[in-house]
Design goal:
heterodimer; A: 328 residues; alpha/beta; D-Maltodextrin-Binding Protein, domain 2; four-stranded mixed sheet; B: 283 residues; 74% helix
């Protein structure tokens, strides 16, 4: 028996990990999946202004990030692409409830919108949301269940339908079901959907964040794809927040604040615009005006009455989104 | 056939000439508890938060059932395919000497080493309607990528080494002389295979099958790229778990996982029983 306990103790000894020291000149930024290029540029510019500071990045789907932080990932700041995922951290007591007031513009330093990308020459003449439900059109966007990007697509299409059918819920539902029936493949993430559309040459139109569609044209050439901005779309905010519980432990609140503030400076805004995101700063927005066509943007608050309601009515299990998949 | 010695009354410390029993058992127990037991009990504990009615509603939901059927069905088919062709590969590697044999032998392990996502993307590129193989199959009316067939292809790829690597060493142990003896005693080639070779190989083949099957049921990384992930058509159960997690619906996610765990456990148990039976029958 003694030997047995000794064995257990020996194992415990093996498992003991050394504790990690943390210093106040280090930040971990937990960010969304496709934000790598943006934050590489942002961090370089920020560190140039604050020598000796290290910014570590972690990129993944933001709901996965939020779950990881709730389970103990020590991220000082979050730069997400979905408000609901920050709200999840509020519920877990990691972020203060009025985080949207801590920074300007609802704590969203830049924004984007679901936009269309079609093949060169726009052979199927896709101009707006109602073209997507035509029988001869195949639409590519990732699975809204696993991709925040596609959740905005779903909401934007619903917002369009609500306007077009003047709030007739049955017709809205029919429209969305038709749209979903035109999707041949549901990839799990935005980049995977891009691959399906660009490299597998499947589908007539890809719907993704405008920042992505611009990136694709840069990567694969303007002559292969055309960007189509629909008449109306949905404002996609990219919320930022300080994770209070973590910065208090690390003593990194000041650095975290100046890091997120930096995103609002003309320099930070310029980097964002360069990466395809629409800037809040008027001067920067004017500078890049040619790149970003005018579009009427609705907000989740005005169309759906807030994210909480959207979550319950649309995204919960068995909600309107689940019904849209039909039973095929 | 050897008969096992009569079991003495069970005692905590089995008399053994090899020292270190207590030490190693204690270490193993602690290790298994940490690595397997605690995570699994955490899973059961979390899914218990759901309550029986909700659990039952979820377990009998058509979407859950279809996803489970697809996951277990494709894994079963893929494992069965691997049993046939994996055994054949093992046979070729063990019984014949040919140039490049070692290369082929090493190649079998590649699916172990390759990140599954890479495998999924590579297979999708090949089998997509515009891919090299896909465009050849398309005129024949065969669609592989974005159908359950694509899932089977991915799982066959992932599961092959499990069968080959379990069957190979056993095959090496069967002497050629045994076959020759059977032949001199007048056995036909078919009889040699069914009466001499297969009985000896059966336990290993069954182990290979269950490993490939268990691996296929849980496979996520490679499948999501090739499956197309259409609900009710090609949505696998592990994806459904991820979907529930994305809804922050931990109880539902863990409940599906618990169902999968239960089903896998039952199937592996049955396979083990079959194996014990076949050992007794042929061993």
């Amino acid at each position: 028996m003694k030997r047995l306990l000794l064995g257990i103790a020996a194992f415990a000894g093996l498992v003991l990990a050394s504790s990690q020291a943390w210093s106040a000149d280090k930040l971990l930024n937990a960010s969304y999946d496709v934000g790598r290029e943006l934050f590489v540029a942002v961090n370089k510019a920020f560190v140039a202004k604050h020598p000796g500071v290290t910014i570590d990045q972690s990129h993944a789907g933001t709901s996965a990030q939020a779950r990881a932080i709730a389970e103990g990932l020590a991220a000082d700041v979050v730069t997400f692409n979905q408000v609901t995922d920050v709200d999840f951290l509020v519920k877990k007591g990691l972020v203060s409830a009025d985080w949207q007031k801590d920074f300007p513009d609802n704590a969203s330093p830049f924004y984007s919108l679901p936009s269309f990308l079609v093949r060169a020459g726009n052979p199927k003449h896709i101009k707006d949301w109602n073209d997507l439900v035509r029988d001869d059109v195949q639409v590519i966007f990732p699975n809204p269940k696993t991709s925040g990007n596609a959740r905005y697509t779903y909401l934007a299409a619903t917002a369009y339908a609500k306007e077009a059918f003047k709030g007739d819920d049955a017709k809205v539902k029919e429209f969305i079901t038709k749209l979903f029936n035109n999707v041949p493949i549901f990839d799990t993430g935005g980049r995977a959907a891009t691959t399906t559309f660009v490299q597998r040459e499947i589908g007539d139109v890809l719907i993704t964040f405008e920042s992505e569609t611009r990136g694709i044209r840069k990567e694969y050439g303007d002559d292969k794809f055309e960007q189509v901005t629909p008449s109306v779309s949905l404002l996609a905010e990219f919320p930022v927040a300080i994770v209070d519980k973590v910065v208090d432990q690390h003593g990194s609140r000041d650095l975290a604040k100046s890091y997120l503030d930096f995103l609002y400076t003309p320099e930070g805004q310029d980097i964002a615009a360069n990466n395809g995101l629409r800037a809040r700063d008027a001067a920067v927005a004017a500078k890049y005006k040619a790149d970003f066509p005018d579009v009427r943007l609705l907000t989740v608050e005005e169309v759906f009455g807030g994210w909480d309601k959207v979550q319950k009515e649309h995204f919960a299990a068995g909600g309107l989104l689940d019904q849209a998949y039909g039973s095929r | 056939m050897t008969t096992a010695p009569a079991q003495a009354g069970w005692r905590f410390r089995q008399p053994s000439v090899i020292p270190g029993f207590g030490l190693t058992l204690g270490f193993s127990l602690a290790y298994l508890t940490l690595i397997i037991l605690i995570p699994l009990s955490g899973l059961i504990w979390r899914s218990a938060a759901l309550g029986w009615t909700d659990f039952w509603a979820l377990a009998t939901d058509r979407r859950t059932l279809t996803a489970l059927k697809i996951s277990f069905g494709t894994a079963f088919i893929a494992a069965a395919v691997n049993v046939v062709f994996g055994s054949l590969v093992a046979w070729v590697l063990v019984r014949y000497r040919f140039p490049g044999r070692r290369v082929v032998d090493a190649m079998v392990d590649l699916p172990f080493a390759l990140p599954t996502a890479v495998a999924g993307i590579a297979l999708t590129t090949l089998y997509a309607p515009k891919g090299w193989l896909g465009q050849l199959l398309m005129p024949l009316g065969i669609k592989v990528a974005y159908t359950p067939l694509g899932i089977v292809v991915a799982l066959v790829f992932i599961g092959l080494p499990f069968v080959v690597r379990t069957v190979q060493p056993i095959m090496e142990e069967i002497d050629k002389e045994v076959e020759e003896a059977a032949a001199t005693l007048g056995a036909s080639r078919f009889q040699i295979i069914t009466r001499v070779l297969l009985p000896g190989l059966a336990p290993a083949i069954i182990t290979g099958f269950s490993l490939a099957f268990a691996r296929g049921v849980g496979e996520y990384g490679s499948v999501i790229f090739i499956a197309g992930n259409l609900p009710y058509k090609s949505e696998i159960a592990p994806l459904l778990i991820v979907i529930r997690l994305e809804e922050y619906n931990y109880p539902a996610a863990t409940a599906i996982a618990a169902i999968m765990l239960g089903l896998s456990f039952i199937m592996l148990l049955v396979i083990n029983l079959v194996q014990t039976w076949s050992r007794k029958r042929y061993g």
